[in-house]
Design brief:
The complex is a heterotetramer, with two copies of chain A and two copies of chain B. By secondary structure, chain A is α/β, with parallel strands linked by helices. Chain A has helices at about 20-30, 80-85, 115-125, 130-145, 145-160, 165-185, 205-215, 230-240, 255-265, 275-290, 320-325, 340-360, 370, 440-460, 485-495, 515-520, 535-545, 565-575, and strands at about 5-15, 35-40, 50-60, 70-75, 95-100, 110-115, 200-205, 220-225, 245-250, 270-275, 295-305, 335, 360-365, 375-380, 425, 465-470, 475-480, 500-505, 510, 525-530, 550-555. Chain B has an eight-stranded mixed sheet with strand order 2-1-3-4-8-7-10-9, sandwiched between helices. Chain B has a two-stranded antiparallel ribbon with strand order 5-6. The complex binds thiamine diphosphate (2 copies), iron/sulfur cluster (SF4) (2 copies) and magnesium ion (2 copies).
């Protein structure tokens, strides 16, 4: 049997049984041991008594997606088994179950390992609470998960709980490991090679990465309102932002949250709020003010299934339209996306930079899938990260300040309260260059053009897309946000199969990067656009710009689940016939 | 004596209110109160919502924000918390404050945010040409209530006290001399200071006139102890008469200061890059 | 000099001087006399002391637009003169001014009539307040405005103020008339023919017509929040709806207004709210609930200049995107437009019918221009108007009610509180056919499809566009909403000039009527889309569907002013070269 | 005796709250109170917002609306005004009611809309897994306030009285026997009846437990006169103790009835077509 060292492990059991912390421990220690990691988890929609699921994919090679199938499934109880057994790889799939809890039926071709997890913890270790660590020990014994790194992390994690606890947990690890090496006859092909990655990595969720990016970008004020799945950004910053000298406050609702940001922005302070669909719907009016008054803010939308309250714990990419068009009237804004956890970090910094440079609202779209799962990425080199601050008015008392000066770039130098000679009233009314309300057609013409000119300047200055694959492919896949991951893996497979395919991943969604996408589409006759939504929101923009040049094939899923690489491969095969 | 005079705060923008509007008197008293505080116009921000009264920021030569209907308070809250060094004064109308902005008003009071909120209360929607506001009297006929408003009016002063504002007052645009000192007292107060100013809309409201307000109001009285919360509460809810004066002026914990204080005590030592680095590395 | 009987009269003076009521009087009496009328007015943005302007176009022939130029300009004061003299037709334009108030410079080619309006009223009639009626008298004397009809209306209007007032006003009318026939030497070519229209008409603004339409459609609950320029709908219904047995309430904000509607809708009551841009931005979340819970509501957006507070008293067509896409996630809704005052009436009825039939939110877009001006249209024949009510669940206690039954049309029979056996909980969460929350992929798939299927059914059942002009034209103009008026007049002129041109006016904007517009575009090589917005919002939809078949030419104006026919003519000429 | 029992109102949907959650007791008391009222399930609508508590409508075999976070009251208001014949009960949590819904709460009280609002107040956001709510105590540590909540808590009962609710009570999910009669009293009241029910969240709130609530609350007392507004106001604002009981139960004008009454008196005679015709013709 050929050894297989790209492994997807899923753990599931009662929520609150430590499923998630088990996964977190494996993930961080594996990353530290130089492995690539990619996780996925779901929480019960109901508060308690539901099922929790954690999945981690481990590999020596760069990972872009969750994988197609589960290779190893550890089901703590019958319910977990019933829910997820269908996702286990029919070829060589391994089921591990707690033989103290239940007995699954035997199934032809499936490899089952029965382990008395409960009694090992209770009797051998002497503490039921160590069941999760026993479990990890089993995985080490079975699949060569990095023992030393796990051991170190256990010590690090439990030290503040006292020596006894550390000891117990190390014992649990060893008991699990030993049980499996001794009592279980290994029938599966999986074994994790030693990691090769040498860079030191951080292991965080997408939401954490967004919070981190905000701190790096210089955010000093966060105003928020809890909402699943965006609350994790709030939680991260609640803990960390004060350490970086920033303030954070829970407001009475989402309108107040974004309003608070606009206030801070007027004060010259970089500011963020994160929310999900329902919150974005509520923020539209304030968003328009931010655009009209040219007060930069960053708004993160961790998208979930809509419409309305919809599927609050599931993932979707259906807020793009709302992000671009949600506010009445027409004011410039920038909408960008983050496809991976490291993009959550870097694109948040970009979002702040764009907001500051162009003095407008920037919306960063990510989704529940990316926001909630962990990835490892190399510790960023802060010195290489460019941070942009607003073009400041060089204040001279008695000079006549034109807050909204009609410049070539559309960007007008701004003053902050405290600046002498920079006094002006920010306004949501149409206004003159001196910020006075004005409704006459001539002034209107100038100011609308000035504001939108910023977007032209922006598109000239920024790189909008990542293009990979074959330069001269006739079929391209265009994917934004978390969908890109499955596509990266898919084109790798397709290319390995000798297919010609190009992948276009736009980072900038609005203003629509017509020129760059146009270039990327040169020579392409068909472009497939997979999106986790019903109507093909980005596809419509592509059609408006390019349907006279290339056939646009929409590929929409709206089941609350991320794309899997094989779906993209299948679609490509279908389209290329 | 401050180096500033009324003129220091007056902008060149023409005041566009109707002749006779109560808001003029408030505006003047505000100029005077700013001068008495000796506030640097460069460190002062006047924030408003939308309405006739909310056009006020244009008439100040300070920093200012003319924002959205009902949203002045959360915007000012966000500004104040992020920029504790600024003097922040919020102005607006009764519709702005108590109707669409009612939820924000409640929370600004409760959080006791360190800013001053002055509501120009004309018991009507002025800018949209005459509809009932939450403080309009029952029976009031407007173009959207041609057969008379059915609701009973809100008692905003009572509400502010009940939900936690630490400085609460009411005055009347006809009382030119009383306004300025009350504004100054509010500005000096640490925490959320709120004053409802009865301010006739001479164009659309033919009921709540200068004369009317004079007849239904009376001073809260010299002997009122504005440190006594329960007395303030009772005075504010007295059924038959609108009291004028400062109901409450208490020192209570201020949320924006508290939060800024938490940040101060948690902030790590070092420059931004060092701090950021150590936060990031704690996740590796 | 050839007699010209298509006449645009503009009256301007201090707001509050009776400018608007003067205009109203002329409009209604002219319509009663069988003339076609078309008005336009602007109010000062500032409350008092500003300038008010009223314009009325009178003709024997059907009018579609405001006209290109002002033929007769009556300026009460210097300020009015300064503001508007530029719009006076340089050929044969007539300036009438109050010679007691000011003296304008003489200008080559302009016809000036100096009339001492103030002293005629004060001294001859003996009451300054009659100045407006004196003025009307002058217009009668000069241009043959329908004397009898005006007289009747004056009597009707002033009777409740007493005999003396009637007498005074009739005297004022005659004094003005007499002065002009005797003292003014007529130099202009204008004279209004007798009207030919025989149908009895109503003369109302677009906002009034919307309110009227709602009453006809069976609306029994209006929840509102004031906002310019939509307050006029609220005002109309506040007065009239209770007479028709409906309830009306001012809510604390726009969110509460639409929320109230959703509540009434659950109760089985037809319901409406009207707002403008900022209100729509706030309503997005509730709108999504209406769509998800399948509770019909009608939302009217009387569009004004955006973004943010923008140009509150000016007109624009910039809320289309927000109407279609404003709410997060994806739920079906219908967006329709009203181009004229009579369409405000009829399309409001349609909006209710669509909402009821398809159980979803319908947004009717009109704009400040159409909402605020008066037109005359024949008294509708109520018996010919079809009124639709929701498909009701035929309630049988003990039967298992499936509120969201997955039907072929997508429409599921609904129950109303009180119906036995129809109990269910309306919800914004994804749900089963029995209205229970459910997040599993299979159910999700069924329900998303069911909801959106309603839009397909709708498009099959409805006529979406009006197409006029030449069937085989290569150039088409596509105009929605108030822009259509100028286009109707423009294509008439173009056709008179021998040009081939087609006009497509879509009533249904969303779901995009791809099939019908596609048919209308057959044989067309270029389609010009004039819109009062910056980005070409409808044009983007047309491009997404048709840019592989036809060249889409955007024509955008965003100055707060409606299009004039000559602009469309000019654009056509430019494009056809 | 009513023909209905608790069972008449219980749906088959499994109640998904955590075992031990205070909301169970409230739900049971509501079933009982409905039965005592003898309400026809077909004429009864339970409306809620979003939150753990707001899932309640699914557990009733009546009509119901599970709506949006904070919007239950204006939705219920619109329903009640349009359908005066229905019994409308609104349920929800403290975040739903007092944070995002604070503005609507204020106006429902002021308008004195004829429905009953029962807030399951656990001083926390349950559904989003533990953040501070407006009624959370100062210093409370949550996942978004890891260093302690700074704000002071809202006194919702005091606020309701101040802004005009005509029936105001507070009870506690631990008081199984007291809840039902208080709910019945509220249902019988004409106008806005509002009850704040202290209801522990056993999963996320380790401070405001059954034990805690017991220790900080006490009955308002037999001698309290719930027709006396000022007494109610004072009792509700007493600083050191949470009173349980009915603070106020007064007959005041009800806005939805008033508006419906206006309609009744203005409605023209005839069938819809005739009325419509005469309205239209008045504009010709
Ligand atoms: C979201 C939104 N809704 C409605 C309006 C329309 N609007 C402008 S001002 C106003 C009310 C004005 O009343 P008030 O706040 O009392 O101020 P006043 O004009 O009386 O000073 C309204 C409803 C708006 N601008 N924005
Ligand atoms: C507009 C909007 N914002 C935020 C949320 C997320 N959310 C759901 S429930 C809730 C608060 C729950 O607290 P509470 O109302 O006290 O109810 P409990 O769960 O404690 O019963 C929040 C913030 C949402 N669903 N919609
Ligand atoms: S309308 Fe009323 S409130 Fe507005 S400026 Fe005129 S008088 Fe003042
Ligand atoms: S989380 Fe708290 S409020 Fe929600 S069901 Fe559990 S115990 Fe009740
Ligand atoms: Mg007002
Ligand atoms: Mg709660």
């Amino acid at each position: 049997m050929a050894k297989k060292s790209d492994l997807v492990i899923r753990v599931s059991g009662e929520s609150g049984e430590g499923v998630i912390s088990t996964g977190d421990l494996i993930t961080l220690s594996s990353s530290r041991a130089g492995l690539e990691v990619y996780t996925f988890s779901t929480f019960p929609a109901e508060i308690k008594g539901g099922n929790a699921m954690f999945e981690v994919r481990l590999s020596r090679d760069k990972l872009f997606a969750q994988g197609d199938k589960v290779d190893v499934f550890l089901a703590f109880n019958q319910e977990a088994y019933d829910m997820y057994i269908k996702d286990l790889n029919p070829e060589n799939g391994v089921l591990i179950y707690d033989s103290d809890a239940y007995t699954p039926p035997t199934v032809e071709g499936r490899i089952d390992y029965a382990i008395p997890l409960t009694s090992l913890a209770k009797e051998e270790v002497g503490a039921l609470i160590t069941k999760n660590i026993v479990t990890i020990g089993c995985l080490v014994g079975l699949f060569d998960l990095p023992y030393d790194s796990i051991k170190d992390l256990i010590i690090e994690k439990f030290t503040r709980k006292g020596e006894k606890v550390v000891e117990n947990n190390l014992k649990a690890l060893d008991i699990g490991r030993q049980y499996c090496s001794e009592k279980i006859k290994k029938q599966d092909p999986y074994s994790i090679d030693e990691g090769s990655k040498t860079e030191k990595c951080i292991v965080v969720t997408g939401c954490d990465a967004i919070g981190m990016g905000a701190i790096v970008a210089g955010c000093k004020a966060y105003y928020g309102y809890p909402i699943t799945p965006a609350t994790d950004v709030f939680k991260f910053l609640a803990k960390e932002l004060p350490k970086a000298g920033g303030v954070i406050m829970q407001m009475e609702d989402e309108i107040a949250a974004l309003a608070g940001c606009v206030g801070a922005s007027y004060g010259g302070v970089k500011t963020l709020t994160a929310t999900s669909g329902p919150g974005v719907s509520l923020m539209n009016e304030v968003l328009g003010y931010s655009s009209m008054a040219e007060l930069p803010i960053v708004l993160v939308d961790v998208m979930r299934g809509g419409p309305s309250t919809g599927l609050p714990t599931k993932t979707e990419q259906s807020d793009l339209n709302c992000a671009i068009h949600g506010s009445h009237g027409e004011g410039p804004k920038i909408v960008i996306s983050a496809a991976t956890v490291d993009e959550c970090f870097y694109h948040t910094i970009d979002a702040f930079n764009y907001a500051e440079e162009y003095q407008l609202p920037v919306i960063l779209l990510t989704d529940g899938f990316t926001g909630g799962r962990k990835e490892a990425f190399p510790i960023p080199d802060l010195e290489k990260i460019k941070i942009v601050d607003r073009l400041r008015y060089q204040n001279v008392e008695d000079e006549d300040y034109h807050r909204y000066e009609d410049t070539e770039s559309g960007i007008s130098p701004i003053s902050f309260p405290g600046d002498k000679g920079g006094r002006y009233t920010a306004t949501g009314l149409e206004h003159t260059v001196k910020a006075k309300p004005a409704y006459d057609p001539d002034n209107r013409y100038v100011m609308m053009n000035k504001r939108f000119r910023k977007l032209q300047t922006f598109l000239k200055n920024v790189e909008c897309c990542k293009v990979s694959g074959d330069k001269d492919a006739q079929i391209a896949i265009l994917a934004w946000g978390s969908t890109a991951g499955a596509c990266y893996e898919a084109i790798e497979r397709l290319q390995n199969d000798g297919k010609k395919v190009k992948l276009i991943v736009p980072k900038i969604l609005y203003p629509f990067p017509e020129e760059e996408i146009g270039k990327a589409l040169e020579g392409v006759t068909k472009v497939v656009i997979p999106e986790l939504n019903f109507t093909g929101q980005f596809a419509q923009l592509v059609k408006a710009a390019f349907s006279n040049k290339v056939e646009v094939v929409q590929y929409n899923e709206y089941l609350g689940l991320p794309f899997k690489p094989h779906q993209i491969v299948d679609k490509f095969m279908e389209v290329s016939q | 004596m401050s180096e500033y005079t009324m003129k220091s705060y007056k902008s060149e923008t023409k005041v566009t209110w109707c002749p006779g509007c109560g808001d003029f008197g408030i505006l003047n008293a505000l100029y005077q109160a700013f001068a008495e505080m000796g506030w640097d116009p460069n460190n002062t921000v006047v924030v408003s919502g939308i309405g006739c009264s909310s056009r006020a920021p244009y008439f100040f030569d300070t920093y200012g924000m003319h924002t959205l209907h009902g949203r002045a308070l959360p915007i000012a809250t966000g500004l104040k918390l992020a920029r504790q060094d600024l003097n922040v004064v919020v102005l607006g109308g009764d519709g702005d404050a108590y109707s669409i902005g009612g939820g924000h008003f409640l929370h600004a009071c409760r959080k006791n945010i360190n800013l001053t909120y002055i509501v120009m209360d004309n018991n009507i929607y002025g800018l949209t040409k005459g509809q009932a506001s939450p403080t309009s009297d029952t029976g009031f006929e407007t173009n959207t209530t041609p057969y008379g408003t059915v609701e009973k009016p809100l008692n905003p002063v009572g509400m502010a006290l009940s939900v936690g504002a630490s400085f609460v007052g009411r005055t009347f645009a006809g009382k030119i001399k009383e306004m300025k000192p009350m504004f100054v007292e509010a500005f000096k107060h640490k925490g959320f200071s709120y004053i409802d100013v009865l301010s006739p809309c001479v164009t659309f409201n033919k009921e709540n006139t200068f004369k009317f307000y004079k007849s239904v109001s009376e001073p809260i009285g010299e002997d009122h102890d504005c440190k006594d919360y329960m007395k303030a509460l009772v005075a504010a809810h007295e059924p038959d008469c609108m009291k004028l004066g400062v109901f409450l002026n208490q020192d209570l914990p201020v949320t924006d200061e508290g939060i800024a204080g938490q940040t101060k005590s948690l902030a790590m030592v070092g420059n931004d890059a060092e701090i950021t680095k150590s936060i990031i590395e704690s996740y590796s």
